[in-house]
Amino acid sequence: MTMRKVAQRIPFTPSKIQASLLERCFGDRRFAYNQQVEAFNTYDKETNPNPAYPNVTGMKNANEWLKDSPIPSNALSNTIMDFRKARSAYFRKAQYQKHRPRFASRNDNIQSFRNTMPIRRMDGNRYPLSKKLGSVRIRKRDRLRYPIENLSSWTVKRENRTYYLVFLFDVDIQPKTQAEGRIGIDLGVKNFLTLSTGEKIDYPNRLRRLEADIKREQRKLSRRTKGSNNYRKQKAIVAKAYAKLRHYRDNFQHQLSHRLIEENQFIGMETLMVRNMTRKARKKLDSDGMPRRNGQSRKRAMNRSILRDGWSGLVDKLSYKAEWYGRTFVQVDRFYPSSKLCHDCGHKYKGLRLSEREWVCERCGNPHDRDVNAALNIRDEALRLSREKA
Fold it and tell me: CATH number of the domain that 266 lies in?
């Protein structure tokens, strides 16, 4: 039996009284976190290597109002654990200042608190958070996917004025039945991904419309006076537009990764270094489908396309779903010349340019679609690596 952590996010609309209680919980969580950050800021390797971090009891004794807080008792302890993770990550990084724990702000678009001692029962179609916070109604279309007895924690989150209840379940996920498909995947800029079967997959046009909405709202924000009420209102609208785009992209990637896992037993993919790719993109614009707007350089266009498509997100989803459902997921070396090798005879076309979407092998004379040929080579190389490991 292999237990996995699976989350389910459910939107809900709190009453006015419940909303005020939740906002107070968000504030108390921020206070506890900022107390840790304040102590951390006194850290000095020579004079103060071990700052005194306040615990929950100490914070409640020093602040009587915190004792009457509606926030669950262990949510403050979880806040301290969250800070410790941030602190550990800070000391693991080479460039410290980029990852330093910062103060939580009430103006952040996302506010949340987590309870790891949940009630494991339902009152009809309502889930009781606590005696002080009341309960949340679960609509029929949002019915729980897993037994409430498997619940390990819940989180209340407010994202862009929308409240969510996020359940985290401990689930025994069984492997799926064996599939016959074996594919290679080539990620690209012109097409989101190309399969070794010859299929090319792109995001729906709705993604581009959501990006256009962001640009329009961002331009409105740039015309507002920073710090004004209109600026804060427009900033919330921009944040909501970004969230809508992010949720749509994640939903598309989940559906796509689910389909690939269902149909194929073996999946091969190239190893991606997105940070290096966006830093070292070429400047010249070739005829490979990349847009040029207002003299936009190829480097900027490619960076935007790579980051917009969310390659890393798809790789992560395929990786953990393959592990869950008994599939084989192999990534080939990032220096493997998948696009330059002829899949039929193995000849390497060293002069292949990025603008050449189709090319003919000099040795065997077979024509190749650049992306399909790369996907075929990735599949074969991944199979070879899999056999070596076995």
Answer: 3.30.420
At 159, give phi and psi (nearest 5°).
-125, 110
**Alpha-carbon distance 179 to 266, whole Å?**
8
pTM of the predicted protein model:
0.84
Residue 51 structure tokens: 């700052």
Taking the mean position of all CA atoms in its chain, how far away is CA 225?
32
Cβ pair 112, 29 in contact under 8 A = yes
Domain of residue 254 covers 181-206+247-389
Q: How many angstroms separate the CA atoms of 324 and 314, rounded?
A: 15
Q: How far is it, in rounded angstroms, from Cα 319 to Cα 255?
A: 14
> Is residue 257 within 8 Å of residue 317, measured between CB atoms?
yes
Contact 214, 260 (CB under 8 A): no
Q: How far apart are the first and last CA of the chain?
A: 24
Specify whether 197 is located in the same domain as 297: yes
User: Facing residues of 158 across strands?
Assistant: 111, 163
Over residues 318-330, the mean pLDDT reads 94
Q: Do residues 274 and 303 touch, judged by C-beta distance below 8 A?
A: no
- Taking the mean position of all CA atoms in its chain, how far away is CA 196? 26
Residue 98 is classified by DSSP as G
Confidence check: pLDDT of 277 > 90: no
Residue in this structure with the two tokens 């997100």, named with its chain if needed: 313
Q: How far apart are alpha carbons 143 and 138 in whole angstroms? A: 6
The first and second tokens of residue 39, run together, are 């102590």
The pLDDT of 1-27, averaged and rounded, is 93
